Amino acid sequence: MFILLTNDDGIVAPGLVAMYRELVKLGDVQVVAPETVQSAAGHGITIAAPLMTARVTVENAFTGTAVAGRPADCVKLAVAQLVPRPPDLVVSGINSGANTGINVIYSGTVAAAIEAAFLGLPAVASSLWLRPGIDPDYRIAARQTRQLIEQLLAAGLAPGQVASINLPSLPPGREPAGVRIVRQCTHPWADTYEMRKDPRGREYFWNTSVFTLGKTDEDTDVAALRDEHITVTPLCFDLTDHATLRAWQGRDWKSPAG
User: Fold this and answer.
1) What is the pLDDT, as a whole number, of residue 210?
2) pLDDT number for residue 207
3) Domain segments of the chain as ranges
4) Which of 61, 80, 97, 129 is 20 to 30 A from 15 via CA?
5) Predicted confidence band at 212 (pLDDT cuts at 50, 70, 90)?
6) Count of C-beta atoms within a 10 Å radius of residue 238
7) What's the CA gap between 258 and 243, in Å, rounded?
């Protein structure tokens, strides 16, 4: 199996290194990842500047290609120019932080996996929920992700499909509560902004990266991860509201006058 590995935390991120060391158990792995951290980059791509690349050796684990661009850029460029043939699988992660709920829309980790699906490839995004007072163990998270990837492939993860995996950080010796296949929570997170003043007295605002969630349905990724389950959510990139589409198609629409 030929696997393309990327992320949004940058090519030297510990989650990427740990994931590489597990994925080589499944086949040949090539790394193409952002040169710098691209968290919350969403699905942006670079079109008004060149994409500079460099070969980088990381922790004596791998030599990969660092791209001065965004996660989606890495996948597009890798498939178009950098890898010898289309990958059998694209893996993005392990991200430092959960990508559940509406965070999926902002996530560069998920965007890379969805870009792979755009290109007709099966893809997996993996993210580790960081919790205060618990040191993240990327080695364990990578092993769990690799085992789930094996199960997803056995279940028939197909070209153009995306699975988003979220894993809980747990104290040493504690096992996850299990695996749950759940939908994405669609309730909004509340952002917190701190108001400050510059030396000239002008106000500006800084996102504190402290987010709170109100109501959470129990059959969602947010609730399951909160309860220390590993979550798997199949994603799609068709943003059409099909129920409204059918309702509107049933109406008699008049052509506007010129």
Assistant:
1) 66
2) 83
3) 2-186+217-249
4) 80
5) low
6) 6
7) 30
Where b means 16+ CB within 10 Å and e means fewer, 45-80 reads: beeeeebebeeeebeeebebbbbebbbbbbbbbbbe
CA nearest neighbour of 37 among 117, 122, 119, 95? 95
Q: Which two tokens stand for residue 216?
A: 């959470």
Between CA 8 and CA 104 the distance in angstroms is 13
Please tell me the distance from the alpha carbon of residue 218 to that of residue 60, in angstroms, as a whole number. 43
pTM of the model as a whole: 0.91
Instruction: Read off the pLDDT of residues 110-135 as tens digits, 9 standing for 90 and up.
Output: 999 999 999 999 999 999 998 888 99
Distance in angstroms (rounded) separating the CA atoms of residues 88 and 90: 7
**Topology classification of domain 2-186+217-249:** Stationary-phase Survival Protein Sure Homolog; Chain: A, (3.40.1210)
CA atoms of 90 and 179, how far apart (whole Å): 21
Taking only the tens place, the pLDDT of each residue in 145-160 is: 999 999 999 999 999 9
